[in-house]
């Protein structure tokens, strides 16, 4: 062995955490995400500056629902698409008004997966997958509305109504409405055993995985809803029971035969083409026996969530007196975490709500009328137990609020109130919406206060890690707490959609602008110069 080589230490294996940290700081300039991370960091810095304002640049009203997806506003049942990215929102496309039978029931935005070769050039552009009332699944160009692909799902035997993600941007689920027999058929003693149909697709390129039935002979009589999420078949029952099954294991065990879109098939003596009218899709996953149960829990109104690390779930005990009480338990052994009972003891018309933080940190967000608690799962020292600890708290601004049951008038008369104010009384600042902007890593909250006859809303942007207030954006339009509201904060855009009675909808778009008036005024005083020149006996002043 060479003496020099003998004196050298063996090379160390690369540390994953160190590599990820260096990548986040931009050491690897050729990394595809470095430029985006730098740009988003710059945008966040500009956005949080004091001189940066948000201006209401566009407002519209509609007699049909308004939807928003990644910089695009959809009106008239997705027939009109407006880009909100331009300096002033502009129409991308306007399609002719469709008939009631052709109306769109639901839609999902598809975006190109990174690092994959796709068969068609159009697959690299964003597209919108829509479900029509006639059971057609269409993929439309997000920029022009052109039909790129179309799949016929089924005949009149079932009505598909809902689109959702099993795995975001990878696996899509199309669900039917619950099958119900007409009253005359029920009176005649005819029974309906199939409750729901689920069709599952791989997206970009679009391919058919399989279709299955949810039959009450297999899953029971009290099934009220069903879903597929993250490879799990979730079945919900009227008595609050939630049962989980492995969808991949079900498809492998009970699939009769795989089918490809556009291929001919012979099914129950009929010859047709998969995904074409009038045959549609074959129901090729026939569940003939109860599949192995992964997990079950009983929760009020079937409220059930899984998340965190290690895996935990959140439920509300299945009794009305426990409404607003949340139990956080280990998925491994159902053990209640230390401090795992979360109860804000709110006295309000609208209940508080809780969910796992969408930033994948494993934290939990608990929102009440005047309090937002961000919780974290923490190991208890020298034990295997997990503790629920507070990461940070956000309080509503109620410094000037006096809620005393006894007041004294100017004449000295003592007046006692018979009723105390609710925690979400309109006259007090109340949290209505909490959301997360993943690209800027900002937590956004909407707080509403009623001033006189009008309600005023404010969008606050906070540091996602510590909850520190970075920016406040007032919404200029009046906010009626009895209406339904949606607020989207997307990079440099704030969008407010309001639903009023009698199906009246309004959309307000705010865009980021840099208010440089003060800076220009200060700099103008520094630059101001008087330049005198003799011209017809007059003195001119130039700035």
UniProtKB/TrEMBL annotation:
Pfam families: DCAF17. Coiled coil: none annotated. InterPro entries: DCAF17. Transmembrane segments: none annotated. GO terms for biological process: protein ubiquitination. GO terms for cellular component: Cul4-RING E3 ubiquitin ligase complex. This is DCA17 factor. It comes from Odontophorus gujanensis.
């Amino acid at each position: 062995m060479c003496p020099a080589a003998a004196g050298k230490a063996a090379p160390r294996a690369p540390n994953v955490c160190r590599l990820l940290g260096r990548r986040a700081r931009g050491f690897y300039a050729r990394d595809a995400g470095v430029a985006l991370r730098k740009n988003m960091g710059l945008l966040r810095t500009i956005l949080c500056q004091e001189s940066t304002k948000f201006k209401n640049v566009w407002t519209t009203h509609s007699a049909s629902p308004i939807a928003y997806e990644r910089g695009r506003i959809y009106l008239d049942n997705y027939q009109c698409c407006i880009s909100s990215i331009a300096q002033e929102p502009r129409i991308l496309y306007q399609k002719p008004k469709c008939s009631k039978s052709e109306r769109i029931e639901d839609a999902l935005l598809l975006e190109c997966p990174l690092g994959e070769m796709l068969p068609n050039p159009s697959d690299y552009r964003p597209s919108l997958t829509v479900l029509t009332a006639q059971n057609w699944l269409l993929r439309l160009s997000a920029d022009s509305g052109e039909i790129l692909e179309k799949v016929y799902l089924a005949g009149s035997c079932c009505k598909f109504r809902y689109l959702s993600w099993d795995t975001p941007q990878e696996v899509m689920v199309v669900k039917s409405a619950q099958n119900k027999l007409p009253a005359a058929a029920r009176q005649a003693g005819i029974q309906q055993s199939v409750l729901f149909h689920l069709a599952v697709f791989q997206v970009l390129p679009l391919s058919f995985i399989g279709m299955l039935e949810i039959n009450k002979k297999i899953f029971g009589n009290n099934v009220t809803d069903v879903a597929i999420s993250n490879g799990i078949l979730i079945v919900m029952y009227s008595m609050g029971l939630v049962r989980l099954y492995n969808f991949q294991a079900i498809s492998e065990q009970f699939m009769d035969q795989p089918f490809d879109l556009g291929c001919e098939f012979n099914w129950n003596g009929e010859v047709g083409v998969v995904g074409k009218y009038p045959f549609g899709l074959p129901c090729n996953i026939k569940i003939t026996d109860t599949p192995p149960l992964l997990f079950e829990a009983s929760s009020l109104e079937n409220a059930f969530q899984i998340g965190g690390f290690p895996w935990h779930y959140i439920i509300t005990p299945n009794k009305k007196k426990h409404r607003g009480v949340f139990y956080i338990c280990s998925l491994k052994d159902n053990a209640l975490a230390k401090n795992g009972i979360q109860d804000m003891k709110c006295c309000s018309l609208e209940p508080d709500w809780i969910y796992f933080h969408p930033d994948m940190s494993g934290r939990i967000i608990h929102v009440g009328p005047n309090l937002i608690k961000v919780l974290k799962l923490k190991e208890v020292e020298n034990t295997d137990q997990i503790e629920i600890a507070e990461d940070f708290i956000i309080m509503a601004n109620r410094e000037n609020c006096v809620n005393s049951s006894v007041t004294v008038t100017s004449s000295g008369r003592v007046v006692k109130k018979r009723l105390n104010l609710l925690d979400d009384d309109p006259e007090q600042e109340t949290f209505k919406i909490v959301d997360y902007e993943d690209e800027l890593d900002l937590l956004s909250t909407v707080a509403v206060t009623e001033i006189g006859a009008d309600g005023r809303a404010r969008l606050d942007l906070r540091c996602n890690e510590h909850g520190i207030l970075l920016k406040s954006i007032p919404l200029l339009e009046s906010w009626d707490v009895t209406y339904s509201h949606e607020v989207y904060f997307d990079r440099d855009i704030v969008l407010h959609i309001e639903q009023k009675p009698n199906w009246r909808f309004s959309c307000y778009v705010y865009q980021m602008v840099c208010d440089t008036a003060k800076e220009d005024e200060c700099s103008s005083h520094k630059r101001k110069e008087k330049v005198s020149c003799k011209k017809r006996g007059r003195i001119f002043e130039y700035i």
